[in-house]
Amino acid sequence: MIDTNIVDRTTVEGNRFDPARARGRGTTDLVRSFRTAAALGWKMEANWTDPLLFFIYSVAKPVASALILVFMLQVIAGPSGIALRPFVIVGSALWSFVVSGVAGLAWAVLDDRERYRMLKYIYVSPSSFLTILIGRGVARLAVGAMGAGITLAVGVVVLGVPFEPLAVNWPLLVIVLVMGVVTISALALVMAAICLQTRQESWDYPEVVVGALFLVVGAVFPLSVLPLPLQVFGLISPLTWWIAGVRQALFPGGPSSIGGPGSLWQQLSGQLNPSAVQVVIALLVSGAIVTLASAILFRAGEARAKDRGLIDRTTGS
Amino acid sequence: MAAPGVVQPTPGPVTAPGLRVFVGRPTASPQEAANWTRRQVWANNLHSIVGRAYPRVRGLTREPSWLVFQMLLPFLTTSSFVFVYRALDAPPAYIGFVVIGGAMTAFWLNVVWMMAAQLYWEKDQGNLELYFAAPMNVMSVLVGMAVGGLVMSSTRAISIMFIATVVFGVSFSISQWALLIAVFVLTLAALYGFGMMLASLFVMWGREAFHLTQLMTEPVYFVSGLNFPVGRLGFIGALAIALIPLAVGLDAMRQLAFVSTGPTGTPEPWVEALILVAMTAIFIGLARWLLHSMEERARREGRLTVRWR
Q1: Which residues have CB under 8 Å from A227's CB, separation 6+?
Q2: Is residue A246 part of a domain?
Q3: Cα B247–Cα B70–Cα A119 angle in degrees, nearest 5
Q4: Which chain B residues are closer than 8 Å to A230 by Cβ?
Q5: Which ranges of chain B would DSSP assign to H, the alpha helix?
Q6: How many domains does chain A have?
Q7: Nearest-CA neighbor of A108 among A238, A236, A195, A34?
Q8: Is B84 touching A (CB cutoff 8 A)?
């Protein structure tokens, strides 16, 4: 039987029932979910300590990564290794951004499922699960971007990397950075889908996967030193083109990670190094393929997790 | 005669010799029931160690993705640094340095993620209060975690060592096998002692624990000279040798495995072995003390079992 009081209350002038509350408000809801998830992610990342300590923790890791490589150069090449520092520092700084970005979404899944046990509630809420996950990952992307920026600054100020702001190809930098963020988010989505299937021990899976990609993307050494089959993987990966694009934008005319004498790129194209336009096109194409594939993989992973009851599973060892 | 409604404990069926100590037995008073013999205490703690190690060892066979993520992919990460040295035409011994460093990171990551941060996870999951309430020494939980973790990370370390040695043709020049094995064992003892000590600290530090695990990866790799001789870091390297078991263990193993590289500017391997012995004793002693303090605090204030702080 219908409660007439409820009907009366909802039809009173100025207090009508809003059908959008049940149906959803489309983009407005998505934006609100994303904003809330991003704010929550940031609070979870940053509100545990005072800002100075948070800053130190956030930059110590990428700066240490760069220093490891700088010392490797120093030990073997001595003073002549200084010329290679820009190459190594840019690659290392960008890589810390990749690590942070890819780990963000996977850790959001593990955090919410294993630690806070909220994933099942988030999943059944009316908000889009994908939007919430991406929102949660934004905070770690921001931390990663900060770490990468500081690493570059340390490289310039402390390690003597020659940097000319006027020589920077700013349009190229902006274009490749935007496309890079999309690609990294796509890879992060794949890791999130994988972590939905696995147990609590998968905290270090993102780092392990990214560590393996580190081999083929020319982050800290040119692809030409790799065996040919690995160079093929490198040329397929959008991250290779992203790093090469940023390098080319920041240090125009500097050594390329893709080309060089005897490289696969040279054999295929006949050119020593790819041009800026070629880098952008390659990044666009490979990034689009990876992004589409990641969306499919995420949906498949999500469906499998739902089917097997993995969304509310908690594990321990 | 028993009070109405109270069931008098009777000796249960004894199916295996070792189970007798846990089977309910008739006693004159609760005090007598609680008064365990030394043998019972030891047997109970040994069972606790086995029980805590079990999910880690057994879990290896229950997560097939482990094979890829913990054995194959870490080898690729190590390979990256090998190619950095190849790009620089470094002497072959440096490739061996990277391979040993890559293998030892397996243990270090295990210590950081699954020892140091583990009690914090347990607190979040609600297990920590059960550990405190259980009739056992909580140290046996830490030892069990270490034993299980050692088995887990050994698979990763062995696979990195084996594959990298074969693929990159690393040739070791070892003259003191016994000392090398002793240093390796001592390094693991010191590493896991360090992890046991940090486990209690991380519980006290609360949410910062997670971020501390981040701070203990690359920055520690750098000061420990993971991919290059730690002696090249000067004072920072010396400090790392004095404080971080990974740094001192790696340096000693490299000196023993690549005799031909000559002086590294760091103490002799036998001196570093003594440093590892001292570290093991200090870390395990501190772990016991910290755990005892934490247990006292947990019982007195009841705050340490509050989750998500």
Answers
A1: none
A2: yes
A3: 110
A4: none
A5: 30-34, 38-59, 65-66, 73-87, 92-111, 118-125, 128-133, 138-168, 177-205, 208-215, 218-223, 235-243, 245-257, 269-301
A6: 1
A7: A195
A8: yes
Q: One-letter amino acid identity for A249?
A: A
3-state secondary structure string, A251-294? Answer: CCCCCCCCCCCCCHHHHHHCCCCCCHHHHHHHHHHHHHHHHHHH
CB contacts of A222 in chain B (<8 Å) are 87
Encode chain A (317 residues) as per-residue pLDDT tens digits.
455 555 555 555 556 777 776 777 778 888 999 999 999 888 887 766 667 777 777 788 889 999 999 999 888 888 877 888 899 999 999 999 999 899 889 988 988 888 788 899 999 888 889 999 999 988 888 888 988 999 999 999 998 888 889 999 999 999 999 999 999 999 999 999 999 998 767 778 888 889 889 999 999 999 999 999 999 999 999 999 999 999 999 999 888 899 888 899 999 998 989 999 999 999 999 999 999 999 999 999 999 999 998 888 877 66
Report CA Rg, chain B.
23
Residues 39-78 of B with CB under 8 A from A: 55-56, 59, 63, 65-66, 69-70, 72-74, 76-77
* Torsion over CA: A279, A276, A215, A209 (sign): negative
Angle between helices A238-250 and A170-197 (to 10 degrees): 150
What number is the ipTM of this complex?
A: 0.82
And the tokens for B99? 């391979």
Is A132:A41 a contact under the CB 8 Å cutoff? no
Which residue has tokens 């190690």? Answer: B53
Please give the residue range of the domain that contains residue A212: 25-307
Cα separation, A153 vs A141, whole angstroms: 18
For residue A312, being part of any structural domain is answered with no
- Is A67 among the domain residues? yes
A275 to A233, A245, A269: CA distances (angstroms): 20, 9, 11
B-contacting residues of A 140-179, CB under 8 Å?
Answer: none
Pick the closest to residue A60 from B234, B217, B195 (CA basis). Answer: B217
Single-letter residue type at A38: A
Contacts of B242 (CB under 8 A, 6+ apart): B248, B275
pTM attached to this predicted model: 0.83
Tokens at B169, concatenated: 């043709």
What are the tens digits of pLDDT across the range B29-38?
Answer: 777 777 888 8
